[in-house]
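Can anyone check this?
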Amino acid sequence: MLVTVLPKSVILLQGSTLFLKCNSNVVSNFTWLKDGVLLLSSDSLFQMTSGILYIKSIQRTSAGHYTCIATNKQWSGVAFSKVSIGIRATILSPKNETFFIESDQSITLQCNATGAPIPSRIWFKNDVSFIYTNNSVLNFNGDLHIFKLTSADVGVYKCEVNNDFGFDSKTINLLFKHAQLQELFTKKVSATRYQKKH
């Protein structure tokens, strides 16, 4: 007896519909198991008809290894399918940040993200793909580390993450600290002039 299940492996977004189709080359009765536990037709989460296992809205608990057992009076056979739950790529750290930097200091630009499959990460500076130099490195977790900062490192950085189920991004603005002091001084002078006029 030849038994197959399609798809053999699938990744679906939570809330999606799942169809598993079990086929046999001879007339058979079909039984389904999940992670070795028998699935009953009375279970409201599953619908089983003529070798088809149907789940209207899969949840994280739906992930696992499914087994189809096909039997008749003479033969029996099994086939398997792995079901995984996909999660949209989502950035966990703040979406917009501003840091005031000084020369020769170091900084780590964080891009913490979650998702399944694991999201890929791409860094940009001023809307151009970031070019790694001798003073920058991409950490294993996707964070961008820059050391011995100079005025050339000032700019708008963007981290983009994506996987099969979604996309997300965050922006980090690096400014020189003296620019912050200049801004405060300008505001103070403006306020003083306003008070003198009134």
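Reply from J.R.: I decoded it. The chain has a mean pLDDT of 87.
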